[in-house]
């Protein structure tokens, strides 16, 4: 039989367990009380509650611990060391019983016992482990049995908590629905706002409930419970609006005096509370599309606002916010409604949401504006080639052999510059022979004159003239033996360096020589674009060899007849270069020419050829 003190302890533990099954407090208060109750029920020297996470891989976590204030011992060390193993066996089997000494000399022993506590959710695992010191095995088994009887206490507590929460939720929703019936019955914003304020003031015994709405970036007081008219310029109204703005800026519920765990700024609320002696005050933002648009402020002298009342205020505000916002939007003259509508549309366009869609729309809009409205310089393109005003074919002055070649193809040669030299050795010998013949015939003629032999004199004089004419021809050819440039130009054809020593015939073309100081541009313009450059004067050219350099040109003439080409007919256009030709230019160089027309839209530039093609194909 248990002693009187033990029986008293068990009776008190039984009463405590019965009370804990219907405990109205929070879990933070329940578990320490259950821990102490089970410790007294088991008369354990050490008790530990552990819980295992539901998500794998779960690990045991200590949630409560009780000790009889005994000093450390090897049994307590063994208990702490094997706690996870004890919890695993207790969770798997529902209980655990283990003696710490195998054959104690005395009749008592130290035992580790554990039971799995029943919880509302089966997937949650909680184990209570106990260290029983200096008890018999029968007493330990009896203790384990009593702990089994108490293992359902957490489950009963959680069931009662859920039941109370459900009842509270039903009451909360019923109150909110009653309030929404009154609000929905109103057709004007002010009436709905007063219905909200009066309903909350009545249900929660508030001295005053006020509603402020965000207008122009500031909160403006719009309704006060049980008050149809009020002056917003009063000091109390202005202080209340400032307090409302404090809640709106933080987008958080504010209770004043604030609870210990509060982490919001309450300076303006505390100032209002002190100046108006309101007692207790709380402010709740009203949100539409997750954006705060208004603030509801409740004042009460008798009792502070509880967390449950704050939740009910939050629920009522969430339910009423959309209805009040719609009434606020429609309860105004049409100009204000249009202004708000435009503001909302522009806010969506320039706001931070849907960034990439807006960027894409902005880019497309910019491209369309550039495509249809921004004028660009339209220019007609065509290929061109450099040509010279004067081209000469230089031929061999007489038959002979090449001796010297002074130039290559492409070399610029000044006027009278040397081009080639012919071998003159034979002609020099002929020159010496002709000089001798002239002297001999002149002496013969003088001799015949001295002897008065007129016939021989005339014959010798004629032979002397003949020899002199031959001498003049030889000297003329000697002067022509070096071929010179007739003007400033460049060799465009004829590379004779490989023909040195080869014979040439009189009249054989040796060089094609072009003048380079009078070069002009000859462009080919397609006949479909020729009408665009009529009465146009300017343009630019770029050479294939130097595309980065652009040179301005002027239109001189357009050939009146088209020239057939593979890709279609073209017109030849003569262009003059502003500033004259460059020193490195040579006849025959080619490139691209662009003639300025006028400014046209980019859409026209990109589509005019397609439009012209369709006009021809669809014309009937």
Overview of this protein structure:
By secondary structure, this protein is an alpha+beta fold. It has 15 helices and 25 strands. It has a six-stranded antiparallel barrel. The protein has a five-stranded antiparallel sheet with strand order 2-1-5-4-3, sandwiched between helices. The termini are far apart.
For the residues shown, what is the average pLDDT?
A: 84
Instruction: Please bin the fraction of helical residues.
Output: 40-55%
Q: How many β strands by DSSP?
A: 25
Question: In terms of structural class, how would the helical and strand content be classed?
Answer: alpha+beta
Q: Give the overall form.
A: elongated
Main beta sheet: strand number and arrangement? 6 strands, antiparallel, barrel
Radius of gyration: 58 Å
Please tally the helical runs, counting DSSP H or I stretches of 4 or more residues. 15
Strand content: 25-35%
| Separation of the first and last Cα atoms | 123 Å
Side by side, the strands of the main sheet go 11-20-24-22-21-25
Low-confidence stretches: none
Layout: helices, strands, pairs:
Layout: H1 4-21, H2 27-42, E1 46-52, E2 60-67, H3 74-81, H4 83-93, E3 95-99, E4 109-117, E5 125-135, H5 137-150, H6 153-184, H7 189-203, E6 208-215, E7 218-224, H8 235-250, E8 254-256, H9 267-276, E9 280-288, E10 291-300, H10 307-330, H11 334-350, H12 355-372, E11 375-388, E12 391-395, E13 400-405, E14 412-413, E15 418-422, H13 425-450, H14 454-479, E16 482-484, E17 489-493, E18 503-504, E19 509-515, E20 519-526, E21 538-543, E22 551-558, E23 563-565, E24 568-577, E25 590-601, H15 602-618
Antiparallel strand pairs: 1-2, 1-5, 3-4, 4-5, 6-7, 6-10, 8-9, 9-10, 11-20, 11-25, 12-19, 13-15, 13-18, 14-17, 15-16, 17-19, 20-24, 21-22, 21-25, 22-24, 23-24
Helix pairs in contact: 1-2, 1-6, 6-7, 6-10, 7-10, 8-9, 13-14
């Amino acid at each position: 039989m248990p002693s009187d003190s033990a029986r008293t302890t068990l009776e008190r533990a039984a009463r405590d367990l019965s009370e804990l099954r219907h405990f109205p407090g929070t879990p933070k208060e329940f578990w320490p009380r259950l821990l102490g109750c089970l410790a007294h029920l088991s008369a354990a020297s050490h008790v530990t509650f552990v819980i295992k996470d539901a998500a794998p891989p779960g690990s045991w976590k200590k949630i409560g611990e009780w000790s009889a204030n005994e000093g450390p011992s090897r049994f307590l060390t063994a208990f702490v060391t094997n706690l996870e193993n004890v919890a695993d066996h207790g969770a798997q089997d529902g209980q655990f019983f283990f003696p710490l000494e195998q054959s104690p000399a005395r009749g008592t022993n130290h035992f580790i016992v554990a039971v799995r506590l029943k919880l509302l959710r089966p997937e949650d695992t909680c184990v209570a482990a106990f260290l029983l010191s200096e008890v018999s095995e029968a007493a330990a088994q009896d203790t384990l049995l009593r702990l089994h009887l108490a293992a359902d206490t957490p489950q009963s507590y959680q069931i009662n908590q859920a039941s109370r929460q459900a009842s509270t939720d039903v009451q909360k929703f019923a109150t909110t629905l009653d309030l929404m019936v009154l609000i929905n019955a109103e057709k004007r914003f002010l009436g709905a706002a007063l219905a909200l304020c009066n309903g909350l003031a009545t249900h929660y015994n508030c001295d005053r409930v006020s509603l402020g709405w965000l207008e122009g970036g500031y909160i403006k007081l719009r309704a006060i419970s049980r008050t149809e008219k009020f002056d917003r310029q009063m000091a109390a109204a202005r202080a209340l609006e400032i307090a409302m703005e404090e809640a709106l800026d933080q987008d958080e519920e504010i209770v004043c005096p604030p609870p210990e765990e509060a982490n919001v700024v309450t300076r303006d609320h505390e100032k209002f509370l002190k100046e108006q002696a309101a007692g207790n005050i709380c402010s709740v933002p009203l949100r539409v599309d997750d954006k705060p648009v208004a603030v509801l402020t409740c004042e009460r002298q008798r009792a502070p606002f509880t967390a449950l009342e704050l939740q009910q205020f939050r629920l009522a505000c969430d339910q009423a916010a959309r209805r009040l916002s719609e009434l606020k939007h429609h309860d105004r003259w049409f100009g204000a409604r249009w202004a708000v509508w435009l503001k909302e549309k522009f806010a969506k366009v320039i706001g931070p949401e849907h960034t990439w869609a807006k960027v894409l729309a902005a880019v497309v809009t910019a491209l369309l504006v550039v495509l249809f409205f921004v004028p660009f310089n339209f220019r007609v393109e065509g290929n061109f080639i450099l040509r010279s005003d004067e081209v000469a074919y230089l031929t061999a002055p007489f038959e002979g052999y090449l001796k010297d070649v002074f130039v290559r193809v492409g070399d610029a040669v000044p006027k009278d510059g040397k081009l080639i030299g012919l071998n003159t050795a034979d002609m020099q010998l002929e020159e010496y022979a002709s000089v001798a013949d002239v002297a001999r015939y002149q002496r013969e003629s003088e001799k015949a004159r001295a002897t008065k032999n007129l016939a021989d004199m005339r014959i010798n004089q004629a032979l002397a003239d003949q020899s002199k004419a031959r001498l003049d021809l030889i000297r003329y050819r000697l002067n022509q033996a070096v071929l010179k440039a007739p003007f400033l130009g460049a060799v465009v054809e004829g590379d004779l360096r490989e023909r040195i020593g080869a014979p040439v015939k009189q009249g054989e073309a040796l060089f094609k020589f072009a003048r380079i100081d009078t070069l002009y541009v000859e462009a080919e313009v397609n006949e479909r674009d020729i009408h665009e450059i009529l009465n146009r004067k300017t343009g630019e050219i770029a050479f294939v060899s130097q595309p980065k350099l652009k040179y301005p040109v002027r239109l001189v003439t357009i050939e009146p007849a088209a020239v057939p080409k593979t890709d279609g007919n073209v017109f030849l256009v003569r262009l003059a270069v502003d500033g004259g030709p460059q020193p490195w230019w040579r006849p025959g160089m080619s490139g691209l020419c662009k003639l300025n027309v006028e400014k046209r839209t980019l859409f026209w530039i990109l589509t005019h050829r397609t439009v012209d093609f369709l006009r021809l194909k669809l014309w009937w």
